[in-house]
């Protein structure tokens, strides 16, 4: 995995250089199993909360895809209910290895995403809010939607709960011509998550992640 990630960083650096994008060094991390296990538990809670929210939304005759888009959860529209098998668990660990590209100017975010999309196989792309307790936010939406005047209150909840830190996330694979022939079999299905955001966004994300998840991990 380390060799794959190193290759990916090299390609990203060359792509950003070709686009004259100024940026600090690209950082990366590969999760330890203990961390991955915590991620799976958290995403299981999110999937269950998302299923409950979908049931409430559909019971009111509203569009589930529309609500996913409103909540910034469109990439998770089908990620509902408990994990059903090994493949769903593996798919939930798309960020087992991850890169972080920090840039100085917000206007460069979409340009960086475009440069990388021209060099890598992009499996999915979305904008994500801060590292916050998504399961709790979904539960808050369920509570509000069960009250009178739900639609208006939910709109206010979305504005208050789901805005803030936003970064562009790409799930990528190496293009076939970037994979050495000897590595084709073990590397062809590896996916890595790339976070693209401003330097100040990523600093805040680190602070918030430590405040939220370290206490939660101690409770598991």
Describe the protein's topology:
Layout: H1 2-18, E1 27-30, H2 33-59, H3 64-70, H4 86-91, E2 97-103, H5 109-117, E3 121-128, H6 134-145, H7 150-161, E4 167-173, H8 184-187, E5 192-198, H9 199-219
Parallel strand pairs: 2-5
Antiparallel strand pairs: 1-2, 3-4, 4-5
Helix pairs in contact: 2-6, 6-7
Walk me through what this model shows.
This protein has helices at residues 2-18, 33-59, 64-70, 86-91, 109-117, 134-145, 150-161, 184-187, 199-219, and strands spanning 27-30, 97-103, 121-128, 167-173, 192-198. The chain has 220 residues and is α+β, with helices and mostly antiparallel strands. It has a single domain, classed as Beta Polymerase, domain 2. The protein has a 5-stranded mixed sheet with strand order 1-2-5-4-3. The radius of gyration is 19 Å and the shape is globular. The two termini are 28 Å apart.
